[in-house]
Known about the structure:
Layout: E1 3-7, H1 13-23, E2 28-31, H2 42-47, E3 55-58, E4 61-64, H3 66-76, H4 87-112, H5 124-145, H6 158-172, H7 181-191, H8 194-201
Parallel strand pairs: 1-2
Antiparallel strand pairs: 1-3, 3-4
This protein binds glutathione.
Amino acid sequence: MHITLYHSPGACSMATYVSLLEAGADFDVKFILLKNNEQTSPEYAAINPKQKVPFLTVDGEGLTENVAMQSWIAETYPKANLLPSDSWDHKLALSYMGWFGSGIHQHLTRHFKPIKFCTDVNSHADIKAKSLDMYMEQLALVDAELAGKTWFFDHYTVCDSYFFWIYNRGLGEDFDLSGLKNCTGHYNRMLERDSVKKVLAHLPG
Ligand SMILES: N[C@@H](CCC(=O)N[C@@H](CS)C(=O)NCC(=O)O)C(=O)O
């Protein structure tokens, strides 16, 4: 099986990258640098018309969307135990990842690039302030979910990889997350993992 992850440092492909390492997968990483707009190159658009990362190819077949990739990784490497086996907890894990992907990620994107959502530059400060508020509202809910827990479930799962990026990207936007004690504890535990150390250190060139 030949696996390639298309990745940009700092982007949500970090979550997929962490999970592939946690799974012990053998894979290649190809950098698509968002800071250079490489996702819009004709070559990349030809293989991934959505022009986003992460993008995973497995023996030439392509998969987009973190939720799908994370599930595929967990199912393909069952020994790594990256999703709960109990049916209800498994759906709860999908629910967490759906929430991170569609309920929280968007606030980071709006804060990072308000121009994508509103051409009136005078409104950008307002969009950024609202997206920060909405991100913090959601993270307060995650903080409550993580109370008394090491990971989202009773063992490490792909949900932990995914939330690592949600928190890391908030830090990248200079959000003060220190009041979120449980999320911060989770992030600090993530920083101790070899997978995360490798992803943070792996830069192009
Ligand atoms: N729904 C997608 C979101 C992917 C996404 O928005 N990726 C961002 C990076 S975090 C991206 O590639 N942005 C480039 C662009 O929008 O031009 C997923 O969950 O994988």
